[in-house]
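[step 3/7] inverse_fold.run input=structure_tokens len=419
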């Protein structure tokens, strides 16, 4: 540890002791931006024989019980490193050098298991139902669940998992060690969104070290230090996976991938079903090949969300579209040639007669084109009383001549092309 880093830690220790109560909030706000101080504190924690370790642990505990939310999170960011140092010292059987770290972990645990009134906490978690949409899935994409999840949700039957009440501990033993450490990781995971990247990196690294120390994979990872096996519990590994899953999509893809592989490796050796189930589920849900290097910062999970407002297709038939279609022909520019305008009026009468390739029914083969023309002319004569025609004041004989002329022009008439 360099002299400048040691001086920064000593200044931090003395500054908080002389800090007035009214300046606590501003001090906590500015503290999270001191990245050099955080780096120096990590080095102090990683040296069990450091003379600064005990006062640092004491001040971190003072931060945690101060009641200031940002000071509490400042202490929580060092929790993975503190757990690793405690487990490493315990595996080497040098318990005396981890007394201050053990006291800090016990202090945080005893503060978290009770509320502000001193009563024991009971944490509850409701398992989400697949029949209800979330940011991760849509029920319609899963398939029919009429007899399973939806039936249970309608009756209000939901499974709730409880944690607690937890007993207070005065010391860590081999019997209660992982009960305490698992609960501490649970508290850390509850504040994952506030943890800086250096804390997520520490989490992934200590998960790999805990899982492979003392096993052949330790030589593959080239981890130095202790070579003793560190015992772990099933619940502790599940909590590690929770933090690793968050690290995947928040800038630490490579380290999280390595930690996930090491946890699967250790869970297979220990034959723990819960970590294997969670780890394989995470591995199967990862977008293989879709993530780039972890230098691009935080990422997000791409999901498809149902739109909040209903969308109407452009091709849908509505009252407005029918009204627009009905009067579309009257909105076209007026031409000086009356034949074109009159041809549009009689389009429904002549549009689909004797189309090429259309079958004719029995008894219709002898009908000639002249008969069909005569029928159309007769239909025009019968509709001569149309109010729109009368409003224009056009004689009936002129309409008959214009229709006959349009039929003689053939299929290239304006009415046929438009329809």
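[step 3/7] decode complete -> sequence:
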């Amino acid at each position: 540890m360099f002299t400048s880093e040691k001086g920064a830690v000593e200044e931090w220790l003395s500054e908080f002791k002389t800090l007035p109560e009214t300046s606590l909030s501003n001090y906590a706000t500015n503290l999270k931006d001191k990245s050099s101080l955080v780096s120096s504190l990590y080095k102090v924690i990683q040296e069990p024989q450091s003379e600064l370790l005990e006062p640092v642990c004491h001040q971190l505990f003072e931060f945690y019980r101060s009641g200031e939310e940002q000071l509490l999170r400042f202490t929580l960011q060092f929790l993975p490193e503190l757990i690793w140092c405690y487990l490493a010292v315990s595996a080497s059987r040098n318990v005396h050098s981890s007394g201050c770290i053990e006291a800090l972990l016990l202090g945080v645990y005893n503060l978290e298991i009770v509320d502000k009134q001193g009563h024991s906490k009971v944490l509850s978690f409701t398992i989400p139902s697949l029949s209800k949409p979330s940011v991760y899935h849509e029920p319609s994409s899963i398939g029919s669940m009429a007899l399973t999840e939806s039936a249970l949700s309608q009756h209000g039957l939901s499974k709730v998992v409880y944690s607690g009440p937890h007993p207070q501990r005065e010391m860590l033993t081999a019997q209660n060690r992982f009960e305490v450490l698992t609960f501490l990781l649970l508290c850390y995971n509850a504040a994952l969104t506030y943890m800086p990247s250096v804390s997520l990196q520490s989490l992934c690294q200590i998960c790999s070290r805990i899982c492979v120390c003392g096993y052949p994979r330790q030589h593959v990872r080239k981890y130095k230090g202790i070579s003793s096996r560190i015992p772990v519990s099933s619940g502790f590994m599940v909590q590690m996976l929770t933090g690793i899953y968050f690290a995947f999509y928040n800038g630490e893809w490579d380290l999280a991938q390595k930690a996930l592989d090491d946890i699967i490796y250790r869970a297979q050796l220990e034959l723990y079903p819960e970590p294997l189930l969670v780890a394989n589920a995470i591995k199967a849900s990862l977008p293989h090949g879709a993530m780039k290097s972890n230098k691009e910062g935080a990422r997000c999970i791409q999901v498809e969300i149902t739109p909040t407002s209903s969308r109407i297709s452009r091709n849908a038939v509505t009252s407005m579209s029918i009204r627009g279609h009905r009067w579309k022909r009257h909105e076209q520019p007026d031409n000086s040639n009356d034949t074109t305008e009159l041809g549009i009026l009689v389009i429904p009468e002549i549009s689909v007669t004797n189309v090429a390739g259309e079958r004719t029914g029995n008894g219709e083969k002898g009908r000639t084109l002249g008969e069909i023309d005569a029928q159309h002319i007769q239909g025009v004569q019968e509709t001569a009383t149309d109010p729109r025609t009368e409003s224009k004041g056009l004689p009936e004989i002129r309409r008959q001549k214009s229709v006959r002329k349009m039929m003689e022009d053939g299929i290239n008439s304006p009415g046929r092309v438009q329809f």
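[step 4/7] annotate
The CA atoms of residues 193 and 246 lie 9 Å apart.
The chain has a mean pLDDT of 74.
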